[in-house]
Specification:
308 residues, 10-stranded mixed β-sheet, single chain, Rossmann fold, alpha/beta
């Protein structure tokens, strides 16, 4: 396949490079020093366990140079998605598929409005990565998992080919029958983690150990589960309890990508994470007072603030 990766940071860079390894024609959209380093020395993944890989790849900062891809993979921050989607629509053909590996569920609502329902493949990526330095993706741990699926539940060659390609290069890749449920499962968990680490400025360890903050975390997740169910997603009623069991298995020092952005004074994805739960609840009769309170409390950080 001819593939365009939009956003070549931790997630896009990692999974895009895996598809290069699988033999696909991949072009990366990047910018600044990261783009220059990729052009000069290729794209590299450095794993803290010693498993490194790299390749010379095609890269550009101009969407017009991407041609007409068979697949567009989007991995930019959510605040860039609306404009990027409009720009990408200009290069998409009638058979071009679109796969977002961004956080949350709102991403695909937005993409389906621009590209149409049939074009969008649902996807969830699990990997701990960031840009270590220009041209280098730093990976922590061995986790590299991806779940893909068609929203109508059909098995199409495009998604099956992607799963096979990822699996061929060591990624734990599976095809989901109900990708909407998979996305919401990760979404409500991520909303709990991001909201509470940002609100408390703590790692997950002390949050889960304290009785009061643990209960607030569970409430954040439970409200998200109720909103998902109200939108027709087949989440179990007790899924919040399952999430709390997952929380207990996380490393004590784990935080969230939104926490790291906030600590650096950068913009944060609150409107599409915890704020997204609040927005999606407006279309239902579900009350989300805890998510609303936290979203309001964190709202001064949405557009970024200088540290200190």
């Amino acid at each position: 396949m001819k593939i365009a990766v939009i956003g070549s940071g931790g997630v896009g860079g990692f999974y895009g490079l895996k598809l290069v390894q699988a033999g696909h024609d991949v072009t990366f959209l990047a910018r600044g020093a990261h783009l220059r380093a990729i052009e000069e020395g290729g794209l590299h993944v450095e794993n803290d366990l010693g498993n490194h890989f790299s390749a010379r790849v095609n890269a550009t900062d101009d969407i017009a140079q991407l041609g007409r891809p068979d697949l567009i993979i989007i991995a930019v921050k959510m605040w860039d998605l609306e404009q990027i989607a409009r720009d990408l629509k200009k290069i998409a053909g009638p058979e071009t598929a679109v796969l977002s590996l961004q956080n949350g569920v709102i991403k695909d609502y937005m993409l389906r409005k621009v590209f149409g329902d049939d074009a969008v493949i649902g996807g969830v990526g699990y990997v701990a990565t960031t840009i270590g330095r220009p041209g280098v993706i730093a990976q922590t741990g061995a986790l590299q998992r991806i779940r893909l699926g068609e929203y109508d539940g059909q098995k199409r060659p495009r998604s099956a080919e992607l799963v096979a390609s990822f699996a061929s290069v060591g990624v734990d890749a599976t095809l989901a029958d109900n990708i909407a449920r998979v996305l919401w499962e990760k979404y409500v968990f991520l909303v709990g983690l991001s909201s509470m680490t940002c609100l408390t400025h703590l790692t997950i360890g002390p949050i889960r150990e304290n009785e009061g903050s643990r209960q607030v975390l569970r409430s954040v997740i439970a409200e998200g589960v109720a909103v998902g169910r109200a939108h027709g997603v087949a989440l179990p009623e007790d899924y919040a309890d399952e999430c709390m069991r997952l929380v207990d298995g996380l490393p004590y020092t784990m935080t969230s990508s939104m926490f790291h952005d906030m600590e650096k004074g950068n913009r944060i994805e609150l409107p599409w994470l915890g704020g997204g739960i609040v927005s999606l609840a407006q279309d239902t009769d579900v009350a989300v007072p805890v998510n609303t309170m936290i979203a309001d409390a964190l709202s001064p950080y949405v557009n970024g603030r200088k540290p200190g």
